[in-house]
TrEMBL record:
<feature type="transmembrane region" description="Helical">
    <location>
        <begin position="102"/>
        <end position="119"/>
    </location>
</feature>
<keyword id="KW-0443">Lipid metabolism</keyword>
<keyword id="KW-0276">Fatty acid metabolism</keyword>
<dbReference type="InterPro" id="IPR005804">
    <property type="entry name" value="FA_desaturase_dom"/>
</dbReference>
<keyword id="KW-0812">Transmembrane</keyword>
<keyword id="KW-0472">Membrane</keyword>
<feature type="transmembrane region" description="Helical">
    <location>
        <begin position="75"/>
        <end position="96"/>
    </location>
</feature>
<dbReference type="GO" id="GO:0006631">
    <property type="term" value="P:fatty acid metabolic process"/>
</dbReference>
<keyword id="KW-0560">Oxidoreductase</keyword>
<keyword id="KW-0408">Iron</keyword>
<keyword id="KW-1133">Transmembrane helix</keyword>
<feature type="domain" description="Fatty acid desaturase">
    <location>
        <begin position="9"/>
        <end position="172"/>
    </location>
</feature>
<dbReference type="InterPro" id="IPR015876">
    <property type="entry name" value="Acyl-CoA_DS"/>
</dbReference>
<dbReference type="GO" id="GO:0016717">
    <property type="term" value="F:oxidoreductase activity, acting on paired donors, with oxidation of a pair of donors resulting in the reduction of molecular oxygen to two molecules of water"/>
</dbReference>
<dbReference type="GO" id="GO:0016020">
    <property type="term" value="C:membrane"/>
</dbReference>
<dbReference type="Pfam" id="PF00487">
    <property type="entry name" value="FA_desaturase"/>
</dbReference>
<protein>
    <submittedName>
        <fullName>Fatty-acid desaturase</fullName>
    </submittedName>
</protein>
Length: 214
């Protein structure tokens, strides 16, 4: 519903980003054009949104064969166009139902539909661009990997901006592992776990976090 492509394509691109982080082959690294000022600015734009317009397809057969083999996930991926319609139709319908006229429907479509999607896109893109350039790096990542923690984006990104920890420990269910770090996504996973809907969640234990500290 976030208008970010079908789930299998999303995962494939994301895994490729992890496989080649900030090296040639990374679909969206801000270091693509070097580290001098001009190259860095160009790289920032590329990592933020430019990469989406390049002809650089990530083959799901190679990066997400497990998802391609999963019937349910394939159905969700196929439903992507319908979900795009739904993510706009729902606010329109809610606006109309609450306000009573189509004008309210269009107003809700604008703010709770188009503006919401645009803002969320910029937050997601900022994790790809800003969270590989500015912020803190309290955890050890692989060579070349420049992922950072950017507290400013923590709430807006639902915790995703704890990106340095995420790259240091990609399977950790919580990105904001330090005191006072917000991570609403981890809270949602915890709730789903309590409801019994998810299992085998990999929570960051104290040892696990300490072992990855820089
Ligand atoms: Zn990253
Ligand atoms: Zn990741």
């Amino acid at each position: 519903m976030s208008f970010q492509g079908d789930v299998i394509g999303w995962v494939a691109t994301h895994r490729r980003h992890h496989a080649f982080t900030d090296r040639p082959g990374d679909p969206h690294s801000p270091y693509r054009y070097g580290t001098h000022l001009r190259g860095q600015l160009r790289g920032l734009l590329h990592a933020h949104v430019g990469w989406l317009f390049r002809n650089d397809r990530t083959p799901p057969e190679r990066y997400a064969p497990d998802l391609l083999a999963d019937r349910d996930i394939r159905a969700v991926a196929r439903a992507f166009p319908a979900l795009c319609v739904l993510t706009l139709a729902l606010p329109f319908a809610a606006g109309w139902a609450i306000g009573g006229t189509w004008v309210y429907g269009v107003t809700a479509l604008l703010w709770a539909g188009l503006v919401r999607i645009a803002l969320l896109h910029h937050v997601t893109w900022s994790v790809n661009s800003l969270c590989h350039m500015i912020g803190e790096r309290p955890f050890r990542t692989r060579c070349h990997d420049r992922a950072t923690n950017l507290w400013l984006l923590a709430l807006l990104s639902f915790g995703e901006s704890g990106h340095n920890l995420h790259h240091a420990d990609p399977t950790s269910a919580r990105h904001g592992v330090d005191r006072g770090q917000l991570d609403p996504s981890a809270a949602v996973i915890r709730l789903l776990e309590r409801l019994g809907w998810v299992h085998d969640v990999r929570w960051p234990t104290a040892d696990r976090v300490a072992a990855r500290r820089a």
